[in-house]
């Protein structure tokens, strides 16, 4: 039987997973992808093979799957059936925040989990859910090799000036600094662009990861230079339900004048702002594009305005721009949003090919465009699998030397 790598991306009510077969020293073949969602409400396990054929579509009771640990157990049982009763060779996890300590993927230990738990206040929507399956596997299958892959790692080589807030040194030393997120996505996009347009990839790229969580990144010669997200995943662009960039004075106002607690403010900024707050109706771009409501138009206008605004900032960080990339759910699937953004970036010389944009082709800029503009589907799970395999190989080599 082949060695396999299981990739887990856990959220508050779902666990997304993919299974890869190790086909060579560094080659991975995707065997299946799936998710168990509706955890705690209407649990459903759905998985398909690499050709898109359904392998399982099973609904469970809340009593049976009431939490992440029970959901993970269902996933593991299903996977063992698929790979001849064996456990995966290794499990790679997406972990949103690695803090100042973790600059690259790392093998999981109880000590590592303890250090990552201290970062929960910096990513309250993501970090607890990312760590839940890691803890569950440590408890139930401690022999199973696990690797934590961080969304912050791709940005850890930023120049210091990019990571600094204008605050006292002691706070910086405690870790209060700009980190950047969606790094696994940007790392994949950078490598993928290098395959399709190597000369452009060697230059200065602005990539826009537009989904329910949204950010942008300046990438020069494959390296992250600057990001719109900072200390937490709240910063930068307005998102589905998150505020994005906010004057700190607003927080002081909410505390002093509205008498809101820290938890109340956290709930507001993470759950009730962004496109949802602006529109007053929905955080889903599909709903907003279909709506005639003025609030929906305002939300989308603010969204595309901020994307264009930050594009200029990121270009300035690199001293210019040689290409633009859209990715993630909105970036890959919403031609109207891409068109609105590019219209605001006409001063950069980007011109769309309307037909290519409507079809979501790889290159959506026209022949006359001074800058190429791309749509690249992200694949964070493949990136996690590759990192996990590399860490696994490093451990195996170390054991052989010992």
Give a brief rundown of this model.
The protein is α/β, with parallel strands linked by helices. It contains 16 helices and 13 strands. It folds into two domains: 4-150, 2-Layer Sandwich (Nucleotidyltransferase, domain 5), CATH 3.30.420.40; 198-380, Nucleotidyltransferase, domain 5.
Task: Walk me through this protein's architecture.
The chain folds into 2 domains: about 150 residues, Nucleotidyltransferase, domain 5; about 180 residues, Nucleotidyltransferase, domain 5. Helix 2 packs antiparallel against helix 3 and helix 12 crosses helix 14. The protein is about 40% helix and about 20% strand. The protein contains 16 helices and 13 strands. The chain is α/β, with parallel strands linked by helices. The chain has an 8-stranded mixed sheet, sandwiched between helices.
């Amino acid at each position: 039987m082949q060695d396999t790598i299981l990739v887990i991306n856990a959220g508050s009510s779902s666990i997304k997973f993919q299974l890869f077969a190790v086909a060579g020293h560094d080659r991975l073949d995707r065997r299946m992808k799936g998710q168990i969602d509706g955890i705690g409400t209407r649990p459903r396990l759905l998985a398909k093979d690499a050709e898109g054929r359904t392998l399982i579509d099973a609904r469970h009771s809340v009593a049976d799957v009431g939490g992440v640990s029970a959901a993970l157990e269902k996933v593991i049982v299903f996977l063992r059936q698929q790979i001849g009763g064996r456990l995966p060779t290794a499990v790679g996890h997406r972990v949103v925040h690695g803090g100042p300590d973790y600059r690259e993927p790392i093998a999981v230990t109880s000590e590592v989990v303890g250090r990552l738990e201290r970062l929960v206040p910096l990513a309250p929507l993501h970090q607890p859910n990312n760590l839940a399956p890691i803890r569950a596997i440590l408890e139930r299958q401690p022999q199973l090799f696990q690797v934590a892959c961080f969304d912050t790692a791709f940005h850890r080589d930023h120049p210091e000036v990019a990571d600094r807030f204008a605050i006292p040194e002691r706070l910086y030393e405690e870790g209060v600094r700009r980190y950047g997120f969606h790094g696994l996505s940007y790392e994949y996009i950078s490598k993928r662009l290098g395959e399709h347009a190597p000369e452009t990839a060697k230059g200065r790229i602005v990539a826009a990861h537009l989904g329910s969580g949204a950010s942008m990144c300046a990438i020069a010669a494959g390296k992250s230079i600057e990001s719109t997200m900072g200390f937490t995943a709240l910063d930068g662009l307005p998102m589905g339900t998150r505020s994005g960039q906010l004057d700190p004075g607003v927080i002081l106002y909410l505390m002093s004048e509205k008498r809101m607690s820290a938890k109340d403010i956290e709930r507001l900024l993470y759950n009730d702002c962004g496109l949802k707050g602006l529109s007053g109706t929905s955080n889903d771009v599909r709903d907003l594009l279909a709506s005639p409501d003025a609030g929906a138009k305002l939300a989308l206008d603010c969204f595309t305005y901020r994307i264009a605004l930050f594009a200029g900032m990121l270009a300035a960080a690199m001293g210019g721009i040689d290409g633009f990339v859209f990715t993630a759910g909105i970036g890959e699937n919403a031609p109207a949003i891409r068109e609105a953004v590019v219209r605001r970036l006409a001063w950069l010389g980007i011109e769309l090919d309307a037909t290519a944009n409507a079809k979501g082709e790889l290159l959506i800029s026209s022949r006359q465009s001074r800058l190429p503009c791309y749509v690249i589907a992200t694949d964070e799970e493949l990136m996690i699998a590759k990192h996990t395999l590399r860490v696994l190989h490093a451990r195996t080599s170390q054991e052989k030397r010992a």
